[in-house]
Amino acid sequence: MFDTLSDKLEGVFRGLTGRGSISPEDIKKAMNEVERALIEADVNLRVTRSFIAAIEEEAVGEKVLKGLNPGQQVVKIVNDKLIEVLGGENEKLITSPQAPTIIMMVGLQGSGKTTHVAKLARMLRKGGKRPLMVACDTQRPAAVDQLQTLGKQLNIPVYSEGTEPRPPEIAKRALDAARKGGNDVIILDTAGRLQIDDALMTELEEVKGNTKPHEILLVVDAMTGQESVNVAEEFNRRVGLTGVILTKMDGDARGGAALSVRAVTGVPIKFMGTGEKTDAIEPFYPDRIASRILGMGDILTLIEKAQQQFDEAEAQKLQEKMKKGSFDLEDFVDQLRKIRKMGSLSGLLGLLPGVGKQMKELRNALETPEAERELSRTEAIVMSMTKNERHNPDLIDSSRRKRIAKGSGVQVSDVNNLLQQFRTMRQMMRSMGKGEMPNMGALMGGGGGAGGGFGGVNSRKSNQPKQVDPLAAYKSGKPGGPRPTKKKK
Amino acid sequence: MFNFFRRKKQEEAEIQERTREALEKTRTSGGGFLSRLFELDDITDQFWEDLKETLIKADLGYNLTEKLIQQSQKRTLDEDTTRSKDVERIFRGEMVRTLEEAQNKAQASVLANAEKEKQRREIERRNAEMERRRKDKVQVKKGTFQSPDAPPAAAVIPSAGVGAQGEKRPYVIMVVGVNGSGKTTSIAKLAQYYRNGGGSVVLGAADTFRAGAIDQLKIWGGRVGVPVIAWAEGSDPASVAFDTVKYANDNGTDIVIIDTAGRLQTNFNLMEEMKRVERVIEKAQPGAPHEIVLVLDAVTGQNGLSQAKHFSNAVGIDGVILTKLDGTAKGGVAFAIANDMKIPIKYIGTGEKVGDFAEFEALAYVNALFEK
User: Fold this and answer.
1) Residue B216 has pLDDT above 70, yes or no
2) CB of B199 within 8 A of CB of B157?
3) Do residue A458 and residue B299 have CB atoms under 8 angstroms apart?
4) Which of A230, A264, A284 is the last residue of a domain?
5) I want to staple B237 with a disulfide (CB 3.0 to 4.6 A). Which of A416, B170, B206, B269 is the partner?
6) Among A458-467, B258-267, B329-338, which stretch is predicted with the lowest mean pLDDT?
7) Looking at residue A455, which CATH number applies to its domain?
8) Residues of chain B positioned with their CB less than 8 A from the CB of A221
9) Cα separations (Å) of B213 from A227, A278, A459, B204, B207?
10) Residue B145 has pLDDT above 50, yes or no
11) Across residues B172-200, what is the average pLDDT?
C-alpha cells in the first residue's frame, strides 16, 4: 500500500519542479494531507488542527518553497514537530527521597493496568527495589486473583484484602504493610473506570488522598481513538497525572493517542507496553512514536536513498551467501559496520511487527559502549586477516592466529573466540537458509549480519520451535570474546 | 439464527427503548450535539464542516465521513433543499442505510446458509426416519416404543438443526477480539440473554493464557447460572473448546459460547492458534462454530478496521459486539467496519453489569444519537 503521507505529498507537489515556486494553495493542500494522515493515525482532531497551524508557517518557509523535494521536506518538518510535542526525550519514573515511593495506576477498563503493575514491579525489582503490588481492583471478577498469580510468577509480594473492603481502605492499609514489610516501592492497581463515572472518580480521589502517590500513571491503550483527549483531560483534572503508559504497542495501532494526550495535558509518556509478558515494557522514546504516527512507509522515505547502506541487489547476494553457507568473515564485518552506521534507523525498523523483537534485541545489544568496543575489536581482528583468510576462516591455523592477534593488538584467545562464534553463526545461517528466509532487503536494512531468526515470534506456547537468537553466536559468556557485556535477562 | 430481522413490532419498540436508555450517556455527553447542529436554517459550507468534525470526533474515520457527507450533499442538491430539517432527515437516512447494508449482507448469507441448513436437515430427517423405522421394528419385537421428540426450542434461541438420531445440536458461538475489548463480560451478558429467552447455555473457558481468566469466567458462570467447562491455566485452548462442544452435544445444551484469549491481530502465531481452535470446534461438531463474533471496544480508533480485517481473514467474522458504549466514545469505527466490510454490529454493551446489553438496531442507534 503506497498511500503514505510522503506519496500523497508527492502528488500535491508533483509537476512543480521547474515552476520555481510553490503557491499558498499548494501548501494548503499539503496541510490537508497532513491532517488526513494524522486523523487516520487517531490523533485527536482538535490537537491535529493546532498542530498543523504550528507547522504551516514553517512549511511555507524557504526550505520547502525552494527545495528540490518539497514532499519530503514537509514530512521532515512534521516529524520534527511531532518529536518536539511528544516531549523530546524520555522522562523517568519519579523516586521519592523518602521510602516508600508510591505509584498509582489508573485508566479505562481493559487498558492494561494490571499487567503493567506487574511489568513495572518486575522492572523496579531488577533495578534493585523491593516492590509491593496492591490489589485495589475489587470490581472485576478475579482481578485480585490475576494480580496474585502474577505476583507468584514473579515472586513479588501482593497485598490484597479480597473484594469486600473499599479500595481507599485497602490502599491505606497497604501503605502500613509496606512500611512494616520494608518495601520501598508500592504499586497500586485500581479498577478500570470511565472518566465520566463520578462515583468511581470520587473513589479514585479518595485512594489518592489516603496514599499521596508520587506517580499517578494513566494507562492508555495505543488503539484509543478520538476520545483519548477527553479521557486524559478528565483523569488529569480529577486526580492529577504525572505520567502515561501507552500499551499494546506490539500491534499495528499508529498510536496517535500519544500525541493527543501529551499535547492536551502536557503529561509525559513514560513507558510503552510491547506485549503480554511481564518483561514487555520499554521506556518511551518520542522519535520512535513520531515515525510510527506518520506511518511505516514514511520512515523509509525519511531516510534518503543515499543514506541507506545497502540496496536490493546486495541484500539478495547476502541472502544467497547465507543459504549456501558461503557467508564469510568479510561479509560479517561488513554487516556489523552497516548496523553500526544505521544507528537509530535500526530502532525505527524495529517497529515492524514480527521483526521488532529480533531487531530490538540486536539493537539493544549493539548500542552499548561495551558492544561498541567489541565491534571495534572484531573489526580490527578481521582487518588483520588476509583476504584469503577472511573468505575461508577454516584455514586459520595456530601460527596465523598468532600473527592476527599481534597485528590487531588482541590476545590469541580473542581470535579463537571470534572464529568459534563465526562458525556457529554460519552454521545457524546454513540451517536457516534451508527454511523460509524473509526478504532481507525489505526487512532488515543491512542488519542481516548477525543473522536474524524469524521463527517463533511472540509465541506463548513453550513447546513451540525454539526461537533463533540472533545474538547466540555473539554471546559467549567468555571474557575477551566479542559479546555485549549487558547481562541477558 | 439471526433474529433481528424476524421480530414483531412490539419487540422493536422495546429494543428502541433499551437502546435509547443505553445510549443516554453517549447522547448527553456529546451525541446530542448532532441535533444542535441541525437547528440552523441555512445550510452553509460551515455547516458541512461542522458535521465533518462531529463525525471525525465519533471515530467514523476520514473515508466514511467523506462518503456520508458527499452522499448527503448530493441528495440535498437533488432534492433542492436548504432546510436543516430536511438535511437531518437525509443524513440520518444515509447513516441507517450504511448500517443496514451490512445487516442485509449478513442476512443474505444467513438466508443462503439457512437454505443449505434446510437441505441438510431434510437429508438428516430422512436418515433419522429410516433409522427410526429400523428401530421401531426392533422395538415392536421387544415391546417398547419411543415417544415423539420434545417440542422445538423458543424462537429467540438460534437453532443448529438436529443430528442423525434426531437429537438437538447445539448452536456454537466463538468469541474473539483483542486484549481488553470486553470478551468475557460480553459472554456473560450473552449467556444471560439466551437464558432469559429460555435456552440452556454452556461456556468454554478457552482463554488459558491470561492469569485469572478462567476464574473470571467461572465467576460469571456462577452468577448467570450456567456451567463452565475449563481445564487448568496454560492448557491447550482448542482442547477446552472441543470438550465444551462435546459436553453440549452430550447434554442437549442449546447454546455454546467459547471464550478465547485476547490477541492482537498482527500476532501471527496467535492468529494461527485461533484458527486452530476454530478447526477443532468443527471437528467436535461439523458445521460449528455457527457464529464467530468480534468484540470491539467503542473507544477504539481506526485500528478497529485492521482488527476486523485480520480477524475476518483468519476465521471469518459474522458480527461485532460493540462494548463500553456507556463511555463517551461513540464507537464510530464499527460504522466503518459495517461500511467497508459489511460486517454487522449485532449487540451493544453498555456497562459492567450483566444486564447492560442490547441487540443492535441501526435505526434505534442513529435515532438515539440524534435525539434531542
Assistant:
1) yes
2) yes
3) no
4) A284
5) B206
6) A458-467
7) 1.10.260.30
8) 180, 297, 299-300
9) 28, 16, 19, 11, 6
10) no
11) 95
Cis peptide leading into B151, omega within 30 of 0? Answer: no
Confirm whether A298 is domain-assigned. Answer: no
Find out whether B97 and B363 touch, Cβ atoms under 8 Å.
Answer: no
In A4-63, the residues whose Cβ lies within 8 Å of chain B are: 36, 39-42, 45
**Residue A200 touches partner B, C-beta closer than 8 Å:** no
A304 pLDDT exceeds 50? Answer: no
CATH number at residue A214: 3.40.50.300
CA–CA distance from B209 to each of A277, B221, B234, B270 (Å)? Answer: 11, 19, 6, 11
Determine whether the interchain pair B61/A45 forms a contact, defined as Cβ–Cβ distance below 8 Å.
Answer: no
Global pTM value? 0.70
The per-residue pLDDT for range A320-361, each reduced to its tens digit, is: 776 666 777 877 777 666 655 554 444 444 444 334 444 455
pLDDT band at A58 (very low <50, low <70, confident <90, very high): confident
Pairing status of strand A131-136 against strand A101-107: unpaired
Give pLDDT, residue A379: 80
Q: Cα–Cα–Cα angle for B106, B111, B113, nearest 5°?
A: 95
Nearest to B301 among A42, A456, A457 (CB): A42
Domain identity same for A73 and A135:
no
CB contact under 8 A, A257 and B301: yes
Number of separate domains in chain A = 3
pLDDT digits (tens, 9 = 90+) for B314-362: 999 999 999 998 888 889 999 999 999 999 999 999 899 999 998 888 8
* Contacts with B269 from chain A: Cβ below 8 Å: 456-460, 464
- Are A110 and B332 within 8 A, CB to CB? no
Kind and range of the H or E run holding A438:
none
Smallest CA-to-CA distance from A225 within B329, B295, B364 is with: B329
Closest approach of B20 to chain A, Cα-based (Å): 18
Mean per-residue pLDDT of chain A: 77
Q: Which of residues 94-113 of A touch B (CB under 8 A)?
A: 108-112
| Residues in chain B within 8 Å Cβ distance of A140 | 216, 352
* Paired sense of beta strands B357-359 and B345-349, if any: antiparallel
Residue A390 has pLDDT above 90, yes or no: no
Statement: residue B210 has pLDDT above 50: yes
Which residues in chain B are contacts of A227 at CB distance < 8 A? Answer: 59, 299, 327-329
**Is B75's pLDDT higher than 70?**
yes
Interchain proximity B180–A460, CB inside 8 Å: no
Report the C-alpha gap between A400 and A133 in whole angstroms: 58
Each residue's pLDDT tens digit, A119-145: 999 999 999 999 999 999 999 999 999
Quote the percentage of chain A above a pLDDT of 90. Answer: 41
Distance CA A229, CA A221 (A): 13
Give the list of residues 6+ apart from residue A113 with CB closer than 8 angstroms, or none: A105, A106, A107, A137, A189, A190, A192, A219
Retrieve residue A136's grid coordinates: 485495589
How does DSSP assign A374-415, residue by residue? HHHHHHHHHHTS-HHHHH-GGG--HHHHHHHHHHHT--HHHH
How far apart are the C-alpha atoms of B325 and B331, rounded to whole Å? 7
Residue A112, min C-alpha distance to chain B (Å) = 7
Average pLDDT over residues B156-165: 77
Q: What ipTM goes with this model?
A: 0.77
Q: Which domains does chain B have, with CATH numbers?
A: 98-139+146-370 (3.40.50.300)
Query: CA A378 to CA B146: how far, in whole Å?
Result: 85
Q: A-chain residues within 8 Å CB-CB of B266?
A: 250-252, 353-354
| Domain, as residue range, for A280 | 101-284
Q: Check if the beta carbon of residue A183 is closer than 8 Å to that of residue A103.
A: no
- For residue B212, list chain A residues with Cβ-Cβ distance below 8 A: 142-143, 145-146, 149
